[in-house]
Amino acid sequence: MQIAEKVAVVTGGGAGIGAALAHALAEAGAAVLVADLDEQSAISVAAEITARGSAKAISLGGDVSDPAVLEQIISLAEAELGPVDIFFANAGTTAGLGLDTPDSQWDVALGVNVLAHVRAARLLVPKWIERGGGYFVSTASAAGLLTQIGSATYSVSKHAAVGFAEWLSVTYGDQGVAVSCLCPMGVETKLLRSGFETDQPGASVAASAVTGAGAVLSPEQVATAVLAAMAEEKFLILPHPEVLDFYRNKGSDYDRWIGGMRRYQRHLMSDS
């Protein structure tokens, strides 16, 4: 995939990985629509890109788990920038934690982390097949390959995001639809740090599980890794290469891996 002169949509683009992706895409020559639940953040990122003069950027605020908002995002991009070539399903939430998480929070987690991907693909893939190509990039997490200590909602929804991306690639890859799935560990974002700033039971353990597992990368480092992987149309994007070793160890001896994760959890809980 050549980024120059393409039209890209980045959800969750107002901060963190999404903002870094929007800037990196613009620097590579793409026109970008920045979408975020925080409308002002989306406006600010688009304005920064426009001020640099590297590419055209517009913005839209809204909840991307809402099908109507996704339709509005794609319609605006098509009207102002042109047909969407690349879609980054990057918006995410850490809503919910353990077994006491109410259904309403499960609905939020699954809506943002999974169904927003499904609904976007539903709108875009038929158009891409007609046009002969398109690129869908899903931001999942290493938690989607491994697990997330402390958070059932995050672990389950990110596993589902990986599963949907796999299915999408298998089903439509021969029809010109490229798919990549981003699965980082710790990234320096508000989403990560929010776990240390809340008094919700278990949140700090979930955050510590991430920061203690390996290096915490900058969003810019992750964006660089994403664009490099897209140039080769690689499915699995692992800014933390050690995740692949963890994943192999999990698959080769599931019981041993679970035992190791239990020990890690005990260690984290003893320090909390």
Automatic annotation (TrEMBL):
<dbReference type="InterPro" id="IPR036291">
    <property type="entry name" value="NAD(P)-bd_dom_sf"/>
</dbReference>
<dbReference type="InterPro" id="IPR002347">
    <property type="entry name" value="SDR_fam"/>
</dbReference>
<keyword id="KW-0560">Oxidoreductase</keyword>
<comment type="similarity">
    <text>Belongs to the short-chain dehydrogenases/reductases (SDR) family.</text>
</comment>
<protein>
    <submittedName>
        <fullName>NADP-dependent 3-hydroxy acid dehydrogenase YdfG</fullName>
    </submittedName>
</protein>
<dbReference type="GO" id="GO:0016491">
    <property type="term" value="F:oxidoreductase activity"/>
</dbReference>
<dbReference type="Pfam" id="PF00106">
    <property type="entry name" value="adh_short"/>
</dbReference>
<dbReference type="InterPro" id="IPR020904">
    <property type="entry name" value="Sc_DH/Rdtase_CS"/>
</dbReference>
